[in-house]
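Please, structure for the following, as tokens.
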Amino acid sequence: MRYSDEVSVHGKVALVTGAARGLGRACALALAEAGADIALGLRDVHADQGLVKEIEALGRKALLLQMDVSKMEEIHAAFEKIKEYFKRLDIVVNNAGVAPENLAEKVTEKDFDYTLAVNLKGTFFISQLAGSLMIEQRYGRIINLSSQAGFVALPGESVYCMTKAAIAHLTKCFAAEWGKYNITVNAVAPTFVYTPGTQEYLANEEAKKHVLSKIILGRIGEPKDVANAVLFLASPAASLITGATLLIDGGWTIL
């Protein structure tokens, strides 16, 4: 086998949450290009923005799923459809996340609860259901989306930072429990990346200048920077890696 073959996920089935745009979309396409069929978890099942056609054009299957990850009934219904359609699940990318911005003294209970429901509760229970299937298969790859915000404090993002730090540790907990079933659980922790979610912030020249002053490599990330790391962790090339959080931060957190 060639070394390059080790980064293939040919014949696998992957679930990507928050797949309609940004990092989720990039991860779904990267996995499809590497040979996986994709279940697309969307907060609005009617808003795939052409992603299904792009995946099918690559010769892979795509399954649209209504999946607001803050709602347990939608998570359970989505998993039933995955089992019915694909009969298996090999890879999960827990990408869905929210980040209501507010100073700590002004955070509302509504925003607090919703951020935890999406970022933590959703990640936990999707991993739980996926883990149950993967235990039966004796194989699985789970990749969670943490953030550099889980390792450094970002003013105005206290609740978001808290959830992303928790995801990094939750990743270790899952990895410790499920390793004996040949399931690896890892996370990626990106810096600022050009996505629809960061577009407004990075359009502010002062904000962009501040971000670039922190990134040692001198550039803001692209979705492919994260998608390539996710593909690696989902592939046989990373088969001896578990419980790790890979910082994709251009060096922000090393100083």
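The chain has a mean pLDDT of 97. The helical segments are 22-33, 51-57, 72-86, 109-137, 158-178, 199-202, 205-214, 223-234.
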